[in-house]
Amino acid sequence: MDLLLSLTVNGLATGMLIFLLAAGLTLIFGLMDVLNFAHGGLFAWGAYSGVWVYDLTGNFFVAIIGAIVTGLLLGLLTEYLIIRPVYGNHVQQILITLGFMIVLSEMLKVVFGPDQKAAQPPAFMDGSFMVGDVILIKYRLFIILVGALVYAITFYILRKTKIGLIVRAGVMDKEMVQSLGINIRLVFMLVFMVGSALAALGGVLLAPYSGVIYAEMGMEFAILAFIVVVIGGMGSFTGSLFAAILVGLAQSFMAYYYSDLSLAVNMLLMVSVLVFRPQGLFTGKG
Amino acid sequence: MRPLKWERSTGIYLLVFSFFLLVPFFYDNRTILFLMTQIFIFGIFAMSYDLLLGFTGIVSFGHAMFFGIGAYSVSVIIDRNEPTMGYLLLGTIVGIVIAGVVSLLAGLLTLRLKSHFYAMLTLALAGLFLVLAEKWRGVTGGNDGFTMQIPEFFKDRGHLYLTCLVSLIVLFFLVRRFTQSPTGRVVMAIRENEQRVESIGFSIMFYKVAVSVISGIVASIAGVLYILSLRFVDTSVFATDVTLDALLMTIIGGVGTLVGPLIGAGLIEVAHHYLSELASVHWIFERWLILFGIVYILAVIFFPRGIVGSLQYMWAKRSAKKKSSSKEKDLAS
């Protein structure tokens, strides 16, 4: 029972990290119809810049803010330089963002050095609670909390505020919203920046969780995020949350009972979704 | 089958190819012959990629896995048995069958969906194969890989050069024949307008899956030849770099031209060769992938036709101009 509970907490924490990465991806895809293969690169940049700021200031929350700012700036740059020339052309989007992914992860090696770096959770979140016989690691609970918070806030903004209304209307009919006097290009740029910031947030939260960061982690987690996006239904925000938790739990249990197969079980989930429900578990935007 | 029509371009290709066939008899430089052999191998690989990207409009981000499947099939079978021609042939057939089955499954699963799905599934599948090759140490030797003996015949670098070149020539003309066949025309029509082809009554799924399988098989043959030239295999054959190389070669050479990827392969392999030598000059050249990435991004935005594609476009524009001006003259007289 204790084992099951701690595996579940582990799985939830991993799932929430994947969710943060997949949320940005699905937000950008669902709202702007752009599939960003460079998303993993933004994730890795978030992790590196966050760890860098943390080493500099020693304050974990400043590090998180630093990572988010990096994500916003890189998002701005990516949208302006890479995505803007290829709006509407899917094949070109896929091709160009993969190229940018390579540039991003190689740039990491140039700026921060090619070796992997160690990362530690801050002192006040190191350690664990004991509830009865169950050990709950503080940092993992924190990740679950942040993930839930991000989901709630994004969902609220998209569904209940005027900004969300504009974004959703812009997806349906770009020209109409533009003619009502709203600069839809700016709105799309902001959406892209928020998506990138979510990826960077996931990156900086991952760093103390896994203990080390390395340049290739972007691609590794991006594959997980793609699997999640396919399972959850492309463009469905709630779907991403459920699929991420599913993948996180599957991976956590698999890693304990049969560690070599943990990537295979995710592929198996994705393949069965593609066979039986190719549109994903959840459809529609939201 | 349509009767084969002799085209002027066929003659030019044959002439260029026969020039390369004669090279090892006159010029026996170890480094250059090895480089040329690599160019032929990656030419085959890039050509198989062009069949997907250029002719059908399908983006694959896991093409390295077919390359790796061919490479590992041959090296494991030869290493476990004896380095004879028979086992080489067996390994090649096993590689082709596995690559065919994997590409068939990947195609069946995702090609009825939007173009993103094939790209994502192949990326994930290639990741799976990479992990498999790392973890299944008993068979693959894990990260360290292993060296193996190859049949006596291929130990001579001239023989190897000619084998790779002949494979390239044969596969080039076969693939070209395919693209010029009625089936190939349907495939190209799918690239241009999928809905229209479907409404005429063609089963798009069948054609797309067929191209996916052919492309996977050709890529696995490139993997087999790669192993013969290196006599060593490790997990790097499954790496994303290999896929990226194929992408670069195809895009820079010219998407959908078939010759373009061969020229692209030549350029990229030569660049690899000299850039890795430059690494001792300045450390930034160790990160030459950045350079390739930037060139690639610029090519996608500003040079989408590639070298051969741009030349063909210019040629077509010039002859169109000539035609219209001669027409005007006819009218005037």
From TrEMBL, chain A:
<keyword id="KW-1133">Transmembrane helix</keyword>
<dbReference type="InterPro" id="IPR001851">
    <property type="entry name" value="ABC_transp_permease"/>
</dbReference>
<feature type="transmembrane region" description="Helical">
    <location>
        <begin position="186"/>
        <end position="209"/>
    </location>
</feature>
<keyword id="KW-0813">Transport</keyword>
<feature type="transmembrane region" description="Helical">
    <location>
        <begin position="139"/>
        <end position="158"/>
    </location>
</feature>
<feature type="transmembrane region" description="Helical">
    <location>
        <begin position="94"/>
        <end position="112"/>
    </location>
</feature>
<comment type="similarity">
    <text>Belongs to the binding-protein-dependent transport system permease family. LivHM subfamily.</text>
</comment>
<feature type="transmembrane region" description="Helical">
    <location>
        <begin position="256"/>
        <end position="276"/>
    </location>
</feature>
<keyword id="KW-0812">Transmembrane</keyword>
<feature type="transmembrane region" description="Helical">
    <location>
        <begin position="221"/>
        <end position="249"/>
    </location>
</feature>
<protein>
    <submittedName>
        <fullName>Branched-chain amino acid ABC transporter permease</fullName>
    </submittedName>
</protein>
<keyword id="KW-0472">Membrane</keyword>
<feature type="transmembrane region" description="Helical">
    <location>
        <begin position="60"/>
        <end position="82"/>
    </location>
</feature>
<keyword id="KW-0029">Amino-acid transport</keyword>
<dbReference type="Pfam" id="PF02653">
    <property type="entry name" value="BPD_transp_2"/>
</dbReference>
<feature type="transmembrane region" description="Helical">
    <location>
        <begin position="12"/>
        <end position="30"/>
    </location>
</feature>
<keyword id="KW-1003">Cell membrane</keyword>
<dbReference type="InterPro" id="IPR052157">
    <property type="entry name" value="BCAA_transport_permease"/>
</dbReference>
UniProtKB/TrEMBL annotation, chain B:
<feature type="transmembrane region" description="Helical">
    <location>
        <begin position="205"/>
        <end position="227"/>
    </location>
</feature>
<keyword id="KW-1133">Transmembrane helix</keyword>
<feature type="transmembrane region" description="Helical">
    <location>
        <begin position="116"/>
        <end position="133"/>
    </location>
</feature>
<feature type="transmembrane region" description="Helical">
    <location>
        <begin position="84"/>
        <end position="109"/>
    </location>
</feature>
<dbReference type="Pfam" id="PF02653">
    <property type="entry name" value="BPD_transp_2"/>
</dbReference>
<keyword id="KW-0472">Membrane</keyword>
<feature type="transmembrane region" description="Helical">
    <location>
        <begin position="247"/>
        <end position="268"/>
    </location>
</feature>
<dbReference type="InterPro" id="IPR001851">
    <property type="entry name" value="ABC_transp_permease"/>
</dbReference>
<keyword id="KW-0812">Transmembrane</keyword>
<dbReference type="InterPro" id="IPR043428">
    <property type="entry name" value="LivM-like"/>
</dbReference>
<feature type="transmembrane region" description="Helical">
    <location>
        <begin position="288"/>
        <end position="308"/>
    </location>
</feature>
<feature type="transmembrane region" description="Helical">
    <location>
        <begin position="158"/>
        <end position="175"/>
    </location>
</feature>
<feature type="transmembrane region" description="Helical">
    <location>
        <begin position="12"/>
        <end position="27"/>
    </location>
</feature>
<protein>
    <submittedName>
        <fullName>Branched-chain amino acid ABC transporter permease</fullName>
    </submittedName>
</protein>
<feature type="transmembrane region" description="Helical">
    <location>
        <begin position="33"/>
        <end position="52"/>
    </location>
</feature>
<feature type="transmembrane region" description="Helical">
    <location>
        <begin position="59"/>
        <end position="78"/>
    </location>
</feature>
<keyword id="KW-1003">Cell membrane</keyword>
